[in-house]
Amino acid sequence: MLYREALNRAIDECMAVDEKVVILGEDVGRYGGSYRVSEGLVAKYGEARCIDTPIAELSIVGNAVGMAIGGLRPIAEIMTANFSLLAFDQIINHASKLHYMSNGKIRLPMVVRFPQGVSKQLAAQHSESYEQMLSAVPGLIVWAASDVNYAYHALKQAILMDDPVLFIEHELLYNKKGEVDVDTPLDPFKARIVKEGKDLTIVSYLKMVDDVMTAVPTIEKELGISCEVIDLQSLNPIDHATLEASIKKTGRLVVVEEDHYTGGYGAQIVSFAAEKLFYALDAAPLRLAGEDVPIPYNRSLELASIPTPEKIAARIVEWGKSNGL
Amino acid sequence: MEKRIAEEIYYLMELGRRFEYAAKEHYMTGEISGFLHLDIGQEALSVAAMRAFDHGDVFTTYREHIMAIARGIEPKAVMAELFGKTTGVSGGKGGSMHLFDPTHFFYGGDAIVGGHLPNAVGCAYARKLEKAGHGVMAVFGDGATNGGAFFESLNIASAWKLPVLFLCENNRYAIGTEITRVAPFLEQAKKAEPYMPTMEVDGMDAVAVYEAVSEARDYIEKGHGPIFVEAFTCRYEGHSMSDAGTYRSPQEMQICKAKDPIERMKKYLKEYYNMEDAYFDEVGKKAQAAVDTAVEFAAQSPEPEAAALFEHVFCKECSDVVS
Hints:
The complex is a heterodimer of chains A (325) and B (323). Chain A is an alpha/beta fold and 325 residues long.
C-alpha cells in the first residue's frame, strides 16, 4: 500500500463508522486532495462531509475547532506546512489551549494534517518544516509519519482521540510503498526502532528516516560498527523511554533532521541526552540538520540546504572517527 | 416585551452592574488580577442578547462576565473564576477572559480579538449538518471587524448559508483607538452588507436589543443563512482595569451615561407595567445579595491544588484509545 493510500484508508474507515467524522480543506473534496489523500471520499460520503473550503487557512483550522466544539470530529488538511502559518493563531491559541483553559470542559477531537519539508524545487514558501515550533506547544499532540504502517494506524488513532493532533506528513513520502498490518494496532506515542544496533544511536523522523537508512550501510562499513536507528514518530510527547534505552546501550547519539539547525527540533533530543544521560554518553552528540537559510529553488542549492544520504554518511563517518568509533 | 422577561432582564442588568463593581473593588484590593474588562454601561446588550438567544451556542469575547451570568452560569462560579479559585467555572485556569461552560453552550471567553469567529462558524456548520434547528451567536466588538478572521467568517458563513448570528457590540473604541480612525465608517454592518442581511439597534436599550436579537435568531433558525446585528453601545470604564481612559472627554462620557441602560429599563417597567420604587429597591437588594454571596463564595473557595497545573493539558482519555 502507498503512504497516501494508507492515510486514505484510515480516514475512509473512520468516516464509514462514524458520521461525525468530516474532512475539510482546500480541494479535499471533488479534487481528491492535492496529494490524493482524500481521493474517492466525496463519492462515498458526500460534499457535506468532504468539505471544499476557500483558501483561508485560519478558517480551515478555526472552523475545525468550532466543529469539534459542536460535536463533529474534523480532519483539517492544510496543503503545505508553510500555509499553516496563517492558521497558527487557531492551532496555538485555540486548538491547543481550550481544553486546558476550560479546565477540561471543552474537548477538541480534531486532526490537522499537513505535508512539510523539501520536495523538488518548490522554493522557500513551499518547503519548510514547522515541527520545532509546533512541538513546543503544550496541549498539541504532534505525530510525524515516516512509516506506511504508522501512517495508517496513527492517523486512525488521531481521529478517534479527543485531543487535537497535528499529523505531519512529507511531500516525498506520499508514494512510498509499505506493508500495513491492519489487524495489529500500534501505540502512536511510541518511537519505532527501525533497525537494532549496538554502537551508535541515530535518531530521526519523517523522511530523514529513509535517508538515514540509505546512509547506514556506508556508515557501518566504513566505521565497522552497527547502528541503531530510531524513528521518533511522536514528536510531542516524546517517547523518552525508548531513547534512553538505546542511548544507554550504544553510548553515542546522532540526530538527523530536515528543519533548520538553529532552534531545530533535534536540539530537544540532544538536550534530553545531555541533561539526563550525560554519563551514559561516550562522546558529544552530533546534530545534522538543514542549513540556516530559506530553502532555495535551484536543485543543487536546495540539496545543499538539507541533509542527504551522502552527507549523512560522510558526516557521521567523519564524526565517528574522531570520537572513538 | 412580556413582563416576566422584562423583569428578568432588569434583574440581570442590576446584578451584572453590581457584579462588575464588586469585581473592580476586588481587583483594587488584589484578590483579582490579570486583565479585567468591565462591562459597565453595556449591560443592556449583554443581558438582553443572551436572554433573546436562549437556545443555541454562544461564542464571545473576554468582556463576558455579565453574558455568562445572563446565560445561566452561576454568579459565584464566575466570581470564583475571577479570583482564580478551584470552584471557578474554568477551575481557576481561565480567569476573567476565559469563562467556559458547555452545559450552557457557552464557549468563552476568547481573548484573541476576532479569533473566536471561525470557531463560531465551524460550530454552526456542525449544527447545520445535524439539522439541530438552532444556530450560533458570535459576539464581538467593533475592533474585531478589521481583522482577517472577521472577513473570512462572513464569507464562509454566507457561502454555506450557516446559521450564525453575528452580533457586533460597537462601543466605538478598540482599547483607545476610535473605530473611525482605522475603518472608513462608523457602522461596521456595512462590511457585512455584501454577504448577509444586517440590522442596526440601539445597544443601550434592552428592549430593542431583545427584539432585534430575537428576530435575528428566528431568521437563522429558519435556515436562511447568517445575519448581522450591530448594536451601538458605550462602555463606561476603560478597556480594562489598566486603561485610564484618557482618550474620551468628560463631555463624551456625559452624553454616553445619559443613555444609561439600567435607568432606561427602569423607565420602561414604570411606564408599561407601573412598577414602583419599592419594586426597584427590592430588585437592587436581591441583586446585591447575590453579588455579596458570590464574592463570599469566591473568597472562601480553595486555591487549586498544585497537581492542577498538569491536569487537562491533554484529555485524560487520549492514552486509552490504543488497544
